[in-house]
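Standup notes
- DV: blocked on the single-chain target, sequence here:
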Amino acid sequence: MKKIFLGFFFAFIIILLFPFSSYADDFSTFADSNTGSGAPKYPGTSTTVQVGDIIGTKLFSGWDTYYVGHVGIVGPDYKVYDVVKWSDVTQVSSISNFVDRFNNNTVGVYRPNTSSGNRFLAGTWAKNNLNKVKSYSITSATHKIDVNYCSKFVFQSYYFGAKYKFGLGDNNQTYVSPTYIIDSSKFIVNAKL
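- DV (later): unblocked, structure below
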């Protein structure tokens, strides 16, 4: 009996210490949770929402970035996480509310040419780290989370959350515009809303 107990005890300790070791480099493990049948569709389309989708527009004149556009990222709860110039700085919106903010301008859904698991990790990072953003400023310090702007936050979600570099390498002193993300050949346009 004592040997059985010790065997279970050591097995339990090993599971606690190494719960995801076999998944560390296999992002495809997350694919089912990202494309499951319970995921909603984008309004007016047959496109399924996926965690880590980037939603944005190139041109907009109005409440936020005027001529350079705006982007946000879909989290694991299918909400859009973004950084704005408003007094609240950060925003969590339903997809419909995010799209409605753009006064009928075309809003696109963009997916990086990377695995579903990478996208899931990026969306989860966005949800878990949006509260670290304290102020809005367009700065070149891509490694700083507390001072942020919309496209930098999306970039950071992929860079820190999924180790996806958007083709920028390890340069932590650059600007990342919404159009850089939207126009990049590293992304697939999945829907127009």
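- Follow-up: The longest strand covers residues 187-192.
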